[in-house]
Amino acid sequence: MATPTLYAIDEFSDLKADACLLDDDFDLVFVSLWGRDTTIQQLLAKLTLGHKEGGMRQFHLVAGNHGIPVEVPDVENLSKQSARSFRRTLFGSMTNLWLYNNLAIEPDKANARAFAVLPIDIKNQDDRLWPLVQSCCGLPLLPHWQEVVLDTLKTEGMLKKLKLAFGPVQGYKLAIELNQLQGRMQELIREGTLSLVPEAVEFPTALPLAA
């Protein structure tokens, strides 16, 4: 098993990240941080405080020779979870903190918006994305439409893979435009690409009546 890469945080020398996902605007979607509990609490305090009180809305993830800005525009849109804690190490008590956009755990079904955070080595990612699409989409989606609908969402830019991914994670941004998707699906139904019955289903022929 390969040793995971740890990314330094420019503003906190005692803090490291082993996974991070950002959207196209560098807004935080998910980050996994390791550090002493005091440093973790200092970061959370700075993200909570306003600018006048010494708060912060941005920190930098050091990847190679580059400092990647991580924007935290609204801390109220973030959820946090302390995943694990190691109390006896050479560096004292170590805490693993997860920060993630609320849309990664609670989709906005009214506006059909969500994030998906997946392991980078997952082999059935479409099977994981499909239930998210079904729950967010206001249109009825039949199970055998999965491949066509997902391909349509990707082609139309309504399901995008996050390009700014660090560590063993990958992410997707779902932003469905219902009118646009409905129009495209109507076209696919008229073309015969989408059908009410799966192609593999064969109905039995009528049996001859007994004399």
Detailed description of the structure:
The chain is of the alpha+beta class and 211 residues long. The chain contains four helices and eleven strands. It has helices at 37-48, 125-136, 146-155, 178-191, and strands at 7-9, 12-22, 28-36, 58-63, 66-71, 78-86, 94-101, 113-119, 159-161, 164-166, 169-175. The strands form two sheets. Strands 1, 2, 3, 4, 5, 6, 7 and 10 form an eight-stranded antiparallel β-sheet that branches. Strands 8-11-9 form a three-stranded antiparallel β-sheet. The radius of gyration is 23 Å and the shape is elongated. 23% of the residues are buried. The mean pLDDT is 88.
Kindly list the characteristics that best describe this protein:
single chain; 211 residues; alpha+beta; eight-stranded antiparallel beta sheet; three-stranded antiparallel beta sheet; 4 helices
The share of residues in helices is 10-25%
Q: What ranges have pLDDT less than 50 throughout 5 or more consecutive residues?
A: none
Order of helices and strands: EEEHEEEEEHHEEEH
What structural class do you assign from the helix and strand content? alpha+beta
Q: Largest sheet, if any?
A: 8 strands, antiparallel
Total helix count? 4
Shape: elongated
**Percent of sequence in beta strands:** 25-35%
- Count the E strands: 11
Mean pLDDT value:
88
